[in-house]
Amino acid sequence: MKLLLTDSGVKNTRIQDALVDLLGKPIAESSALCIPTAGYGAPDADPGGPWRFVSGRSPHPMTGLGWKSVGVLELTALPSIEKASWVSWVRETDALLVNGGDALYLAHWMRESGLAGLLPSLPDTVYVGLSAGSMVMTPRIGQDFVGWKPPAGGDSTLGLVDFSLFPHLDHPACPENSMASAERWAAEIAGPAYAIDEQTAIKVADGTVEVVSEGNWKLFNPAS
Question: Which of 89, 108, 161, 175 is the most exposed place for a label (fewest CB within 10 A)?
Answer without folding.
Answer: 175
